[in-house]
């Protein structure tokens, strides 16, 4: 995940105690793995077809974290990349199915697709339908999805939050529609 810890706080005793002596980066990595495991178990038990706004939040956080991990390219192991891509497919499928129930998921799915590399997007589209907004629904989605909240997994400390607000994502939906045609 793209959570940045300021270096002056990493070695403070309170943070090390809260992390049980582990480095904060290790704790964040373990939390990401646990959240992914919960989403996989939820998918196995319930599927993503039914309305659940918390699922969209978790899938967005996981999807954006995986996109960031793939963009770093630090892991050259093909098994690790395959695991990342499997998680990316899970997040895209889940957001696509949640998009049938409410508009914010559709916008989050589009945002996730825009963040992917072209080869990852092509792989995801073999398993999940590409999310897009039809012209007749664009005004309705913009009206009901107006939000100042930052998108989970995109907001970085010390960054302008305007870049990651859902409200600003709505303005970029037309760009994706033009590129996909």
Overview of this protein structure:
- This protein is an all-alpha fold and 181 residues long.
- It has a domain at 13-132.
- It is 65% helix and 0% strand.
- It is globular, with a radius of gyration of 17 Å.
- The chain starts with 12 loop residues before the first helix and ends with a helix.
- Mean pLDDT is 75; it is low at 1-6.
Regions with little confidence, pLDDT below 50 for 5+ residues: 1-6
Radius of gyration: 17 Å
Number of strands: 0
- Please report which band the strand proportion falls in: under 5%, 5-15%, 15-25%, 25-35%, 35-45% or over 45%: under 5%
Q: Give the biggest beta sheet.
A: none
In short:
With 181 residues, this protein is mainly α. The protein contains nine helices and no strands.
Helix-strand blueprint:
Blueprint lengths: L12 H6 L5 H23 L6 H20 L5 H21 L4 H13 L2 H10 L7 H10 L21 H6 L1 H8 L1
Features:
single chain, 181 residues, mainly alpha, 9 helices, 65% helix, disordered N terminus
């Amino acid at each position: 995940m793209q959570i940045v810890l300021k270096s002056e706080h990493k070695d403070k005793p309170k943070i090390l105690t809260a992390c049980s002596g582990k480095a904060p980066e290790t704790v964040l990595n373990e939390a990401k793995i646990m959240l992914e495991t919960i989403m996989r178990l939820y998918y196995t038990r319930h599927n993503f077809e039914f309305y659940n706004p918390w699922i969209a939040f978790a899938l967005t956080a996981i999807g954006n974290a995986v996109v960031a991990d793939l963009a770093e390219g630090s892991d050259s192991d093909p098994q690790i990349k395959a695991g990342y891509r499997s998680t990316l497919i899970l997040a895209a499928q889940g957001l696509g199915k949640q998009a049938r129930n409410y508009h914010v998921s559709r916008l989050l799915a589009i945002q996730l697709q825009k963040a992917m590399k072209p080869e990852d997007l092509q792989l995801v589209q073999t398993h999940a339908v590409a999310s897009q907004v039809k012209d007749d629904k664009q005004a309705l989605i913009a009206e009901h999805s107006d939000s100042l909240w930052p998108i989970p997994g995109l907001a970085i400390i010390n960054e302008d939050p305007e870049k990651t607000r859902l409200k600003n994502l709505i303005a970029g939906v037309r760009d994706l529609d033009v590129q996909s045609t």
